[in-house]
């Protein structure tokens, strides 16, 4: 008959529980070195063979994923949009029992161990995409449409959102509409990112013969970028300043609002403002900013679900485009006019 743990316990005079924990190398067990040696020696002498675990007892290794954020930690603090996406990924990963390894500013040297999948958040050049591909075949992009390159992508429907914002302004009889938008490049400087909101804005207003290129101002996606762009608009346009502005994100919109207030231009009475992303920033300024709400946490969770489906079976790439919602606040409330 095969030797059992009970046989070893009787031969050593040690409890069955202690024998089991010693042979399973339980690091939390406090037992003397001599007792450990006696148990292992007796097990070897009696030719003890550990029984394989049943399928119910076998716990699979948690799958590890790399969450590659193209922003640095400090930059993420300034742009809560990408932070919210990351938090959505991490929360949903916990639900699916995935171990997440954070990588900031696309610095893959931070990865010191193999991963089963990658969720890449932000914008990436062709070279960066191929480098990520060398890590794993299970790759999902968030806020970057890499579907044509053969990868799962989770993006936002910018075009419809912009059309809806323009419709709000036109309903308010504001036909002179300005734009403040941003430009960025990937962390390796190889790809310039064209703001899809600017493209949709131009197409939408051109179709209605309302597009005025002199009413559009380019900057970076920061509070100071929005402030500088609105100051430029005030300087160059003077009394011809549009009665409505669409601003590409909340940090820029808060900067633009500051510039208008410094110039003593009333919002929304003289200039109506509509922002994009609807982070907490939109509610912590006065007047509160109307903003396009983007389902950032859902974007992150959708990416996790796409990755999990890739773990289960091979399939063609998928492109998921999520809708938005207009959140109306005081920066477009014209009832006081």
Task: Summarize the model shown.
This is LacI family transcription regulator. Helices cover 39% and strands 19% of the residues. The protein is built from eleven helices and 14 strands.
Structure report:
- The protein has helices at residues 5-12, 16-23, 33-45, 73-78, 80-95, 126-133, 158-171, 196-207, 223-237, 250-262, 296-312, and strands spanning 63-69, 98-104, 117-121, 139-142, 152-156, 177-182, 184-185, 192-193, 216-219, 244-247, 272-277, 290-294, 319-322, 324-327.
- With 337 residues, the protein is α/β, with parallel strands linked by helices.
- The protein has 3 domains: 1-59, lambda repressor-like DNA-binding domains (434 Repressor (Amino-terminal Domain)), CATH 1.10.260; 63-156 and 296-322, 3-Layer(aba) Sandwich (Rossmann fold); 158-293 and 325-332, Rossmann fold.
- It has a 6-stranded parallel sheet, with helices on one face. The protein has a 6-stranded mixed sheet with strand order 9-6-10-11-12-14, sandwiched between helices. Strands 7-8 form a two-stranded antiparallel sheet.
- Strand 7 (184-185) and strand 8 form a beta hairpin.
- Helix 1 (5-12) crosses helix 3, helix 5 (80-95) crosses helix 11 and helix 7 (158-171) crosses helix 8 (196-207).
- The protein is elongated and about 100 Å long.
- Keywords: DNA-binding, Transcription, Transcription regulation.
- GO terms for molecular function: DNA-binding transcription factor activity; transcription cis-regulatory region binding.
- It holds the Pfam family LacI.
- This is LacI family transcription regulator.
